[in-house]
Write a structure and sequence with these properties.
The protein is of the alpha+beta class. It is about 25% helix and about 40% strand. It contains four helices and eleven strands. It has a seven-stranded antiparallel beta sheet with strand order 4-3-2-1-7-6-5, covered by helices on one side. The protein is elongated, with a radius of gyration of 21 Å.
Length: about 200
């Protein structure tokens, strides 16, 4: 079930909009209007690098309680409630809860042995990138390492959300078929035994 709030928000370029904010499975969506027409925006949870309640008057949106979102590409988004000041604190609490679930540094690695002489074919498949949007799948990072005889996929983020999306995405199954002729033996799950910093 999506949770909806009546808000106004300001983009990094200073444009202001009023409408509705919803916390969904993939991210927070903003749907509203400004003087030039309707605006729809989806901010995936993986894009949010930090968030905080505005403390200074200059940081607040029209002097109201404001939540400041720092996005991964350096942009900043300010969100303020339209009618109820307590909504901003509630929104921060909900984002904090989601963030703990999604950014808890849960790491998994999948090791795929590949046939001798298939290294170049494996690299060619990897050049296209993943057959899914990592942020939409609940990941905060995704790396792939290649050796002469193995491909190691490393996933960081929310494993539960990742598995849920993985189980229902047809593009992933299609991509897996292309890997089948290259695989040489059972696929193994690598569990993190050590991390610095922890």
């Amino acid at each position: 079930m999506q949770i909806s709030y009546a808000v106004s928000w300001q983009e990094s370029d200073g444009q202001r909009h009023s409408g509705r904010l919803e916390l969904g499975a993939e991210g927070l969506s903003l749907d509203g209007r400004n003087g030039e027409g309707s605006v729809t925006r989806l901010i995936r949870y993986g894009e949010i690098r930090a968030f905080r309640l505005a403390r200074s008057t200059g940081d607040r949106l029209q002097g109201r309680p404001t939540l400041v979102l720092e996005l991964g590409d350096g942009r900043r988004l300010k969100v303020a409630s339209i009618a109820q000041p307590g909504i901003v604190a509630e929104l921060a609490d909900r984002l904090s809860s989601i963030s703990k679930g999604r950014h808890g540094r849960e790491l998994e690695a999948i090791v795929i042995p590949i046939r001798e002489g298939k290294h170049a074919e494996a690299e060619a498949l990897l050049e296209a990138g993943p057959p899914f949007d990592p942020a939409a799948f609940g990941l905060t990072s995704h790396d792939v390492y290649v050796t002469d005889r193995e491909i190691i996929f490393v996933f960081e983020g929310s494993p539960d959300l990742f598995r849920e999306h993985l189980a229902h995405d047809g593009a992933v199954f299609e991509a897996a078929e292309a890997w089948r002729p290259l695989i040489d033996g059972p696929i193994r799950l690598g569990l993190r035994a050590y991390a610095w910093p922890s």
